[in-house]
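Comment on both lines for my students:
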Amino acid sequence: MFLKSIFLQNFRNYSKSEFNFSKATTLIVGPNTSGKTNLIEAIFFLSTGKSFKGGDQDVISFDYDIARIRGNSLEIVFAWKEERFIKRYLVNGVAKQRVNFVGHLPAVLFAPSDLELVTASPGIRRNYLDFVLEQVDSVYRRSLLSYEKAIRARNRLLENAKKTGKRNEEVFEYWDNVLIDNGNIVTKTRGKYLEYINNSIKNVFDLKVTYDKSIISNDRLLQYKDQELAAGATLVGPHRDDFSILMHPNINTANKSELNESELKDIKFFGSRGEQRLAVLQLKIIELSFLKENLEEVPLLLLDDIFSELDSEHIELVLKMTKGQQTIITTTHKEFMHHNMLDNVQIISLSQ
């Protein structure tokens, strides 16, 4: 889907603003704190129904109770009502659940914060998998939603059992079955995507991912029964998944195929900051190909302040990705773009 325009009301630093985009490349230029990343965040909301920054409750401008994002046929309304934060999703003016909202505007985001894929906690990497897979797989979306609801219900049961010392096995059996059925779908789908990454051509950085999956089954739940009761929380399942990004000890090694897997190193601990950036760039290139193949359409490409993160050689490589698809790029100075590329670029200028 081509994003024609976006309207923002009381969203972050925008009181009421509308922006139109080119079918090819749009360059958003402005100083720091001018709202470039906020605009990218708003577009990402239309794609995934979530913020890549984390919590959503602070998106409403100060002194207001309601904010909205509208683009094409999609709209999200944020509101405080009786001290309760509410998000409403609409498609063509009709209210939808997020599970039915996601997928209308597929997008790939590459931003400086993506370095956290390497450096931060497992939750960041699980969120990454969800952002990618929810856009292409409605079964995954529904299974993940059911799994998350079941985890919350089961954790409440565990908390209550911890306090009272009593455990209703019939109720636990029901929620255990919901967790196992949906959790196995989540695990299988994540595994296939990580396998896709490993089987893809690496033209930027040679990496391998390993899936540290937390299998959920009746045997595993029984194994951790006492520990879960003591913790008051479910200790196994895909909500505890992680994956590692591995690199060769020397990326210039001539015969990499001769290296044993045991010789690979976790880039989180052994990679330089430059190598970590390139690994994330490689993941994003593979993600773009994955969405193209599975959706049979070209997703929107969002490049937020990449010029501050990459050297000129790799910036050129990223900009080659923009050919033949809609791309929205933010930067502090348009001079970072090669002058030949500015000829066919629409420019939006933001002030402080």
Remarks:
- The two ends are 31 Å apart (CA to CA).
